[in-house]
Amino acid sequence: MSKLASTLKDEITRLGRKEARRLALPLKRRITTLERLVRDQRVAMKQLARQAAAVPRAAAASSGAPPGQAADSRELDAVSIKRERERLGMTQRDLGKRIGVTHVAVYLWESGRSKPQGRNRKVLQKVLGLRAPRPEPARAAMKPGPKPGRKPAPMPKGPTPLERALAAQAARRRERG
């Protein structure tokens, strides 16, 4: 009877190990994929940090103004958005990710079909080192005010998609300890 018990015990142990390997293999593959993703995101973050550091220097160099005054020297319009994006070596998709909008929005700004508004306008000005154009007196006087009884739409608040992703990544790092 002890040989039967020993054989059963060995067989149960073998099957348990086999089942554990079967369940662990997909998890190991997923962990490897996630580690690769984290590594790629770190590389992308370093590239973005280098680009962000280069923006004030490049803006000052192209405008001839001191670094603190670079943002005041050029206006935010369709031509300058495209020119500055290309000067920084960014694609429309890259610029859209930095700002938190789609590449289609960047295309529409560059083609003059729409203009960046609110938070997007402010972030775009910071990223490219541009300023808002001064309104012409005649055009400013002709602009209609808000319709009576209507409140303007509230500005979206909160972090951009990139800021949310970075915060989530930092939280995961803290959890891992």
What is the helical fraction, as a range of percent? 55-70%
**String of helices and strands:** HHHHHHH
* The CATH homology group name: lambda repressor-like DNA-binding domains
Number of domains: 1
CATH domain class: Mainly Alpha
What distance lies between the first and last C-alpha atoms, to the nearest angstrom? 51 Å
Total strands: the figure is 0
> Stretches where pLDDT falls below 50 for ≥5 residues?
65-73
The main β sheet shows up as: none
Question: What is Rg?
Answer: 27 Å
Write down the oligomeric state: single chain
**Structure annotation, total helices:** 7
Strand content: under 5%
Q: What is the structural class? A: mainly alpha
Please name the defining characteristics of this protein.
mainly alpha; 434 Repressor (Amino-terminal Domain); single chain; elongated; 7 helices; 177 residues
In words, what does this structure look like?
- This protein is mostly helical and 177 residues long.
- It has one domain: 434 Repressor (Amino-terminal Domain), CATH 1.10.260.
- The chain is built from 7 helices and no strands.
- The chain has helices at residues 2-63, 78-87, 92-99, 103-111, 118-128, 137-142, 161-176.
- Helix 3 crosses helix 4 (103-111).
- The longest helix has 62 residues, at 2-63.
- Residues 65-73 have low confidence and may be disordered.
